Amino acid sequence: MKRLSLILFMALLSISANIQAQTIFPAELTAPAEFNTGTVHISVLSHSERQMTTNFLFEQGSRNSWHYHPSATQVLMVLNGEAYYQEEGQSKQLLRKGDVVTTAPNVRHWNGATPWSAAECMTVTEIVKGEEHAVQLRKVTDEEFSSPIPGETMLVRLAEIEVYPEYLTEYLAAAAEIQLESLKTEPGVLCLFPTQMKEDSTQVRILEIYASQEAYQYHIQTAHFLKYKQGTLHMVKSLKLQDLSPLNRETMDMIFKRKN
Fold first, then answer.
1. What was the pLDDT predicted at 1?
2. What sections of the chain are H helices per DSSP?
3. Is the pTM of this model over 0.70?
4. Residue 224 CA: distances (Å) to CA of 60, 182, 217
5. Helix, strand, or coil here: 255?
6. Are 71 and 125 in contact (CB under 8 A)?
7. Is the dihedral of CA 140, 144, 150, 156 positive or negative?
């Protein structure tokens, strides 16, 4: 366990050269890699004897380590994007713009961006005389970061596609390419499973499962999706998207865990 005083914390911050995302407040510094995974930009907006207000910009997929604030309450507000938050012994939460979380003193927790969205957050933390600002623990594991969120609504969809026979081979190659690229690079794409009807090979069905609506919106803006969409327009005779509702949402996580 490592204790990090406010003075040491600020000393370890380095100036960030390039910030691609637009932020409400300047994200002037980069939090130390020793206590963060990925790139986390930070600015201290105010600091008094009683409290400190800090703005964080978590780049996509980044997060801080498990930590707690001795004898101090912290309020976290999501200003933009989607964020994760988890307290020790509790399930991970998905936070969206406008969500507010209050962390009680001495509660071990972590927060960060989702795999498919950056997140801008503001924290207001009490300053307790004689106490460390934060006690840093271990880093958040990939398993913890990718753990399912109970009750979160997945987007499940069936794409019903009819392909012109003369383009079938070319289309199947494009479908296989986007499947592989999406599953390799997008954690929010849980399933992308192209199939063919046995009685008519030009009838293609693609089962799509996304972690959330936001994950789907991110997916359709990626370069590999746009390449697939624009490159196969002339190959597709008809397309129908069917949104599906799972009969039992609780079993969805069981299905993916069983495969693993």
1. 45
2. 6-12, 142-145, 168-185, 213-219, 223-232, 250-259
3. no
4. 18, 8, 14
5. helix
6. no
7. positive
Beta bridge partners of 80: 120
Structure tokens at 76: 């976290």
Q: What are phi and psi of 60, to 5 degrees?
A: -45, 125
Largest CA distance in the chain: 76
Distance (Å) of CA 197 to CA 42, 166, 174, 180, 243: 52, 17, 18, 21, 19
Blockwise average pLDDT, block size 10, the chain, 260 residues = 41 36 67 88 88 90 94 93 91 89 95 88 91 90 80 83 97 96 88 94 95 82 93 95 79 64
Q: Which of 20, 28, 38 is nearest to 83 (CA)?
A: 38
Separation of alpha carbons 197 and 195, rounded Å? 7
